[in-house]
Amino acid sequence: MNLVDSCGWLEYLSDGPDADFFSFPLFKTEQLIVPVICIFEVFKKVLAAKGEDTALQTLALMKQGLVTEIDIKISIEAAKLSFELKLPMADSLILATARAHNAIIWTQDQHFKNIPDAKYKIKRK
């Protein structure tokens, strides 16, 4: 399973220099986990930059993967990960979700740089 972090979705959607890095997991929708926290972050950014119509189109794309809710088990695991690894809330929820689904996180977020279950790529400008 794969999980594309919010920054990966935004890189891909904006056709950034590293969009190709994220195209592999995004096109395998049957193996794609989409945490609701990523939907929140991506929808908000696209809404601010491009408006509601584009944000809704982005949501439709994201919903092609397996959308996963934040339940109590993931919340508790995320709190532990946040404490142990000094991760921000959203990142710890994403990591806990990935681990609950045995998924690899595809990201450019430096918080995941040394996380074994993440494929990290330095963001090019």
Overview of this structure, please?
The chain is α/β, with parallel strands linked by helices and 125 residues long. The chain has a single domain, classed as 5'-nuclease (Rossmann fold, 3-Layer(aba) Sandwich). Helix content is 55%, strand content 14%. The protein has 6 helices and 5 strands. The chain has a 5-stranded parallel beta sheet, with helices on both faces. The radius of gyration is 14 Å and the shape is globular. The relative contact order is 0.20.
What is the element layout, followed by pairings?
Elements: E1 2-4, H1 6-13, H2 19-27, E2 32-35, H3 36-50, H4 52-62, E3 66-68, H5 72-85, H6 89-100, E4 104-107, E5 118-120
Parallel strand pairs: 1-2, 1-4, 2-3, 4-5
Helix pairs in contact: 1-2, 1-3, 3-4, 5-6
Give a short summary of the structure.
With 125 residues, this protein is of the alpha/beta class. It is 55% helix and 14% strand.
Task: Enumerate the strands of the largest sheet in spatial order, edge to edge or round the barrel.
Answer: 3-2-1-4-5
SSE order, one letter for each helix or strand: EHHEHHEHHEE
CATH H-tier superfamily: 5'-nuclease
What is the fold named in CATH at topology level?
Rossmann fold
